[in-house]
Each structure stands twice: as structure tokens, then as C-alpha cells.
Specification:
97 residues, alpha+beta, 3-stranded antiparallel sheet, 2 helices, 18% strand
Length: 97
Amino acid sequence: MHKGLHEPIISLSLWQKVQDKLDGNRNRPARSDLHEDFPLRNFVACDVCGGALTAGWSKGRSKHYGYYSCQARACNRYGKSIRKDDLEGDFAAWSRT
């Protein structure tokens, strides 16, 4: 590679990014939706529509409760929650077999 004498069309850093993508060396940012509280988030699929389940906490009177749910608006189970303990327990039992 040699430094040219003309005005570049693209910057050297942009050229390097394109070369890295073409070579398969992609630097992807860490996913912000992965959290140790919900290890099955976006891993377990809805049994009705096949979309990935999301998860979150709900606040009760004195405790917080974890739930997984389907967020596909066209799904019959849209907004219906599955208790965290139930889903993770069933998954653990299934994975042992």
C-alpha cells in the first residue's frame, strides 16, 4: 500500500472498516438486552407464533416477579406472561433429558 498524491474519495479508516467486513472480521457491540436475570430471553420461542420471548420484572406489593412474554402483536399470546421460575424450571428439566 502506498500513499497516493491525489485527494482521497473515502477516508483510510472507512476503507479499513469495509475491508474488515469483507474479510469477516466484524466488531459487533455487545447486546444490551442480554442480562443474567433472564438467561432465556430471545433464546426461547413462543409456541404459537415462533417469535422470541422477551422478559422483564413486575413489581408486586413487596417483591419483584420475573416474567417472560411474547411481544408479537399478531400472536394470540401477545402480552400473556409466563412466570420466570416455571419457564426456566421446565427448560432445565427438558435440557436434562
